[in-house]
């Protein structure tokens, strides 16, 4: 496995990466109580960063800040004085964006605008890692998808992420901010909600194991659709490496491999040692479904040395184990 360490860059220009030794970072993470945000906070803290997490409701380890409040957002950035800002906060469900597209489109873009303005005014030398999505590419013209592919978002969530991504590029070009746009493809792992495919499948297996079912019934949508999945812990590691090493620009965060829903269900049976009754529910088959999505992380790897390290089988086993450890009496 290639080393994740790259040679420190000894430059003072705020538009270029600083040396790792200089980056004992004061880190601000939006969406820190969310799935990827929580894992990122853990990665940063373990590396010695001073982590300040933001979430709309706040909590034990996060400050309550609504990014739709421009004044509160600016005041928070000024108070924190971050070296690195990771922007992960967003309404992130594709399915829910179809059900109620308005808040997804307006809130995701408005929150990003308020944060970018706050960084421009109060922390212009900070590295700004804006987490985007592989969804913004839409149906791929060729595989694997690289960063030069056109943007063809096919759902309201993807449109909101494409808009945020373009806005981030504007702040880099117009204001000279050190903006790193991380276009993350599907990721999975412990603590993800069942709105997302692997978490849903894993919870069904966990429930079946707890109930002693044989075989265990797992209900999915289209079994043949293929997606590029990366373990969330690898994704979080990629974000921190981008902040440490990468020049401003766009970087895909992905595994470079695709797997179908049917293959995931079969793998769940293998890693858990159980028989699976895989049932396809036509109500879960989405319109405008893209048959296959697979990216390349060559640019990310060249910039940081990052490679995915956690096998899909481990992701699945850990996700099932996490669900089995939860008090799930009230449902997902």
Percent helix: 25-40%
* CATH architecture label name of one domain: 3-Layer(aba) Sandwich
Give me the count of strands: 13
Cα-atom Rg, whole angstroms? 20 Å
What is the succession of H and E elements?
Answer: EHEEHEHHEHEEHEEEHEEHEHH
Low-pLDDT windows of residues = 1-22
CATH topology of one domain: Rossmann fold
Share of β-strand residues: 15-25%
Coarse shape: globular
Count up the helices: 10
Give the strand order of the largest sheet, numbering strands 1, 2, ... along the chain. 3-2-1-4-5-6-11
| Chain-averaged pLDDT | 91
**Sheet with the most strands?**
7 strands, parallel
- The CATH first-level class of one domain comes to Alpha Beta
Q: Please report the distance between the alpha carbons of the first and last residues.
A: 36 Å
Quickly give the structural class.
alpha/beta
Q: CATH H-level name of one domain... which superfamily?
A: NAD(P)-binding Rossmann-like Domain
Structure description:
It is built from 10 helices and 13 strands. Helix 6 crosses helix 10. Helices cover 40% and strands 17% of the residues. The protein has 332 residues and is α/β, with parallel strands linked by helices. It has a domain of 222 residues: Rossmann fold. The chain is globular.
Gist?
By secondary structure, the protein is of the alpha/beta class.
Core attributes:
Rossmann fold; alpha/beta; seven-stranded parallel beta sheet; disordered N terminus; 332 residues; two-stranded parallel sheet
SSE topology sketch:
Blueprint: E1 26-30, H1 35-46, E2 50-55, E3 62-64, H2 70-80, E4 84-87, H3 94-99, H4 101-122, E5 127-133, H5 156-175, E6 178-184, E7 187-188, H6 197-211, E8 216-220, E9 226-227, E10 230-231, H7 232-245, E11 249-253, E12 259-260, H8 261-272, E13 276-280, H9 298-304, H10 312-324
Parallel strand pairs: 1-2, 1-4, 2-3, 4-5, 5-6, 6-11, 7-10, 8-13
Antiparallel strand pairs: 9-12
Helix pairs in contact: 1-7, 2-4, 4-5, 6-8, 6-10, 8-10
